[in-house]
Amino acid sequence: MSYPLVVKHTRELRSKKEKVYHPLDFLPGEEGQVDWCIISHLGMGRLYCFVLILSYSRYLFAHIFPRSSFEFFIEGHIKAFSSMNGTARSLPLKRSS
Fold first, then answer.
1. Whole-angstrom Cα Rg for the chain
2. Which residues on adjacent β-strands are paired with residue 31?
3. In which band, very low, low, confident or very high, does the pLDDT at 95 lie, cut at 50, 70 and 90?
4. Domains of the chain, with CATH numbers?
5. Cβ proximity of 46 and 38 under 8 Å
């Protein structure tokens, strides 16, 4: 039996799954998200990337720093605000689980 034939004959047995999310709608300038990502580079150790993304436009700002300390967190915000000529009304820090 071929894979397409199996798919054809088992289509009725497979149940449709409901979507487990609901779409989020944002107004322009309403919200953005801030987070760090870690870049491991051989020979250079770890680098930290400050990321800010606007929820409505999906505009992404990213800047690499040597550490994820508070002063670089503030500097990342300042660079992002300067790059996008302003900021969103709310910028919650995305918490990793």
1. 21
2. 90
3. low
4. 24-97 (3.30.420.10)
5. yes
